[in-house]
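User: Predict the complex.
Assistant: Input components as received:
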Amino acid sequence: MTGEERAGQEEVLRLSGVTKRFGALLANDNVSLRLARGEIVGLLGENGAGKTTLMNILFGHYVADGGSIEVNGEPLTPGSPGAALKAGIGMVHQHFTLADNLPVLDNIILGTEALFALSSNRRGARARIAQLGADFGLAINPNAAVSSLSVGERQRVEILKALYRNARILILDEPTAVLTPQESAALFDTLKRFSQTGLSIIFISHKLGEIMAACSRVAILRSGKLVADRSVESSTRGELAELMVGHKVASAKAEPQEAGPVLLSLENVLARRGSLALEDVSLDLKAGQILGIAGVSGNGQSLLADMVSGLLPPMSGALKLNGAELWHLSPAKMVAHGIARIPEDRHTEGLIGDMSVTENVVLESYRSSRISRRGFIDWAKALRFAADIIESYDVKCPGPEAKVRLLSGGNMQKLILGRVMSNAPSIVLANQPTRGLDIGAVNYVHERLLAARRRGAAILLISEDLEELLALSDAVSVMFRGQLSAPVTRAVTTIAALGLMMAGQGFGGEMRHAS
Amino acid sequence: MRLESRSTRPLALLVGYPLIALLFASLFCAMLVMLAGASPFSVFGLMAKGAAGSQFAFLETLTRATPLIFTGLAAAVAFRAKLWNIGGEAQLYAGAVMTAVLGTGALQLPTPLLLPILIIAAMLAGAVMLSVPAFLKTRFGVDEVVTTLLFNFIMILFVSMLLEGVLKDPAGLGWPQSKKVISEAVLPKLIAGKRLHFGFVIALAAALAVWIIDRKSALGYEMRAVGFNAKAARFAGIPVNRVLAKTALLSGGLAGLAGFSEVAGLKGNLTLDLSPGFGYTGIVVAMLAMLHPLGVVAAAIFVAAVFVGADAMSRSAGVPSYIAQVMVAASLLSMVTAMMLTRFRIRWN
């Protein structure tokens, strides 16, 4: 009944010696992998280990420099997504590929019908989608517009899309990134049900817990090489982590520490942007403490972050710094008040890729007397400042004149840390500071945040990674549909409890309306 | 086929590709000349002679380059900040109108006082002309490509109205032209008896000033930051809208200077054919120069040489001078392609 029993039976996919180079980088180095009918294999590895490259080769987006792929014993035409689809390979991308303005039905049948057909068999398609939904517990209204669906439902549409095309091998790329722990558990159940009907699944993730919960076998990639291919049951978490990173992993943890005075507070703040809103949000940031904000993405965390960043003024309520209300918010003013802001998206908000390391380092401080005088920038001083940051924050780059877009994600984040933390800010906003980073860089960011906490900074940490929140935060509040829960201290909460809150438990919407 | 980003841009490519581009453009034009039934060698020879073969030809090229340097700088400054100013023509005429209004006798001042006033007034006129689209863009999100382009037509009709009305020269035999500017408002010639005037020197100074602003000043840094990534610039605390407003003032002002320099330096009065599309050609100049302020000077002289040379050539070789426009267009397209190839490499698979 288990995956291992079936594993010996029937091989549906075989990758042999797949190699792919990008310039000097060996993205996949002689990777071989087998997949049996009804098996769920986890593909584990850090960012940049080559997981996505391997799957893109399998799906025909890239052509491998060496090696071969066989599906059901037949060689797969390289470089053709069409051939991959025809061979029964379906892929659910991390970033959904749905047309928001079309209903579910059209999204699912899009591309399955002849381009110049006069009629389309929508009734048949509808029946089939209903059947698939019933078979796999993926019920969804085919007439609903995709734009009205929740993230979990959109993922369901993506999976249905693959099933509708008769996928026998399903590739899921970081499928839980947007789900609550409970939604993730439901997804794992669905995957198990798939495997019982003979579907084979490759589950890509860099999260150990998920791999252990969902998969029977795990293949681990490190720097493009397959370093392990073993059964999950006979492995411990520590072993897998070590295999993935290549050395022992010591993760950062916050030591208990006395809270100081409240440095920044939000009082009954209301704000709105588009369909998102913050409703009556209050919070206190205390010196020497980290307040974590948990929540499924899209529940208002970005509004909260933008407000503390100075981009979004509250419609009512107050933002207070050391007890004094702040008026006319702007990013420059927040910088002037000594608030360090680590933005959610390094590429679009944090850095300017086409400018040099130096130009990016002075982005917040070019007006200060340290760097410029009477409207003219002293680039020699800026260069020295950049060299300092590169040195003390261990930014790996060709030099201060190098374009930032050439840096890796981890080094970009170190650069941002250097920019905002170098003059010992008293308040730090860290919005998803470790998203997409490898474990080494994650630890570095954590250490820096904890160091700031030790010297008495008040830190607001917004994250979708509950393990991170519980490791670092003194207390965690949960955001749900624009409301913020009261903080719960780390000692008394668990991931499961936070997960329930993320799904809305304890947010008394009705009570508010009744009063 | 797909494009792959290069991690480095070797100097050999940065120099080699533009040269190959110019060679390619020349070969392409040589083909067209052969189609027109002439020998490419004699045509190119005549063009080179017409553009730089004599002192007269060379000075004529520089004279023609003068307004192009101004409008090229205007486009380069704006494009750096991703403010798509297509309205150089309107801003040029705004500067020209201002020069004609104030310089034809409304202000009776000695030259050292009058010329600076005219320069500032013409720059202001051009700056205001672009500030309106910039304001609409930052405040209401109106696409500045559309507004600046349409302002060109509005401005040209407005100038036409002025020249048939209040600004019409009573002694002009009915021609739609303004009075001549008073002698105190005339820019001196650089060489007595030739057409090249002091506007060329102002243009060079403007290019140098823009280069210094771009490289050294906080404003130039802000403009580049806004152009590359406005969202990150805003997050870091750069006042994006204010930077765009300053960019508009600078860009519009430079185009306004082109109008001043043509009226006060060359033509002497405002006419409807003051600019044969200098505003639009300025965009080509800026793109050829890859938005580099000093490159604009070289690109403007190159484009001017092609036009002046083609005029001279067509008189003796019988090939239409329209070939100049084809040459400039072919050079631009191959140059833009070459520049793209220095950033990306083509992969065939």
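Confidence is low (pLDDT under 50) at residues 1-7, 510-515 of chain A.
Let me know if you want any component modeled separately.
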